[in-house]
Design goal:
By secondary structure, the protein is an alpha+beta fold. It has a single domain (2-82), classed as Glutaredoxin, CATH 3.40.30.10. The chain has helices spanning 11-23, 36-45, 72-82; strands spanning 2-6, 28-31, 54-58, 64-68. Strands 2-1-3-4 form a four-stranded mixed β-sheet, sandwiched between helices. This is Mycoredoxin. Pfam families: Glutaredoxin.
Length: 86
Amino acid sequence: MLTMYSTPWCGYCHRLKSQLDREGIGYEVVDIEQDPAAAKFVESVNGGNQTVPTVRIVSPNGGESVLTNPTIVQVKNTLAELGVTA
């Protein structure tokens, strides 16, 4: 499962969403401005900063990876490494 932590005004988030759509990769978007728990998670993995997009990928077997402002290639590689199918 791929979760993208985002804000409505983030240009990098919009770009990554369009790339994920084009590649047929499913994802859930969580707006950190509307979800305080999500904002705390993003801060916890980014040295206290609310850097978006932050992408969390969880595999069915329990593996997990978090990427900050990743490229679509990094996302695809991480999905493959974790054995997550799009």
